[in-house]
Amino acid sequence: VCRLDPYDGFPESYLIHGGRTPNNEISSSLYMLTMDSRGCNRKLTLCCKEKELVGELPEARYGHTMSMVQSHGKTACVLFGGRTFMPAGERTTESWNSVVDCPPQVFLFDLEFGCSSAHTLPELSDGQSFHLAFAREDCVYFLGGHSITSDCRPPRLHRLRVELLQGSPLLSCETLHTGISISSAITTRIGPSHRYIILGGYQSDSQKRMGCSMVVLDEKEIHIEPLEPPKWTQDIVHSRTWFGG
After folding, report:
1. What is the structure's pLDDT at 29?
2. What are the annotated GO cellular component locations (predicted)?
């Protein structure tokens, strides 16, 4: 899910892409959820419409991120990462529902014209899933995540810059060295500034992340600072499951 700020007279909305059901179905659909109206009884009505895309389309996936970027007066949606089913030609009876990390491509959605384009950058060489993404203006930061291939959570941090030029967009990526090992965490933006709280998630398959972090995006870089965690209930402390959402 990705929040889309109001623009050009359109209300605040949310983009919903992909996902996995309990029946092992993985979606490739893109939806836009908006507030339709508040009637005389003040009841909130929501409107959900599927958006059709053309061009280079991302395959069905889950565990990915979507972020909004703004550049040169234009707006676009950035999709990255996630998991999908193993290619049909590689599946066996035993591995029919096995999943793999999607190729590390970046997809750009032009929501005005419904166009999608795929981009490959040398810095993004491995697939990653259940990572975190933070966006400000023309930059998106990808933090952490889990890799099926290596079965680890490397403390990686990438800064993707997207210039929405006339004609073709220009993408560049930089690897930063201030990341943390984390996956499946919850991230929440607090207030109108570019400040976020990270809580929960996993440091390893058997170790939940009980600490919290504050993320601040300024005009040039990202700052990640430890934050005093709340006093967790015993249910959370002793639970084996901790899955962000």
Report:
1. 94
2. DNA recombinase complex; nucleus
- Residues 6 or more apart whose CB falls under 8 angstroms from that of 143 comprise 131, 132, 133, 134, 156, 157, 179, 180, 182, 215, 224
Q: Which amino acid is at 181?
A: S
Task: State the pTM of this model.
Answer: 0.90
C-alpha triplet 127, 74, 168: angle, nearest 5°: 60
User: Is the residue at 245 inside a domain?
Assistant: no
Query: What pLDDT is attached to residue 92?
Result: 73
Looking at residue 239, its pLDDT comes to 80
Q: What is residue 208's predicted lDDT score, i.e. its pLDDT? A: 87
Q: Give a yes or no: residue 15 inside a domain.
A: yes
Among 78, 97, 75, smallest CA distance to 5 is for 75
Contact 201, 212 (CB under 8 A): no
Burial bucket for residue 117 (CB in 10 Å: 0-12, 13-18, 19+): middle
Helix (H, G, I), strand (E, B) or coil at 234: helix
* Other CB atoms within 10 A of residue 214 CB: 15
Whether residue 153 lies inside any domain: the answer is: yes
What is the tally of structural domains in the chain? 1
For residue 155, the enclosing domain spans 2-238
Sites in the chain below the pLDDT cut of 70: 7-8, 37-40, 93, 95-96, 241-245
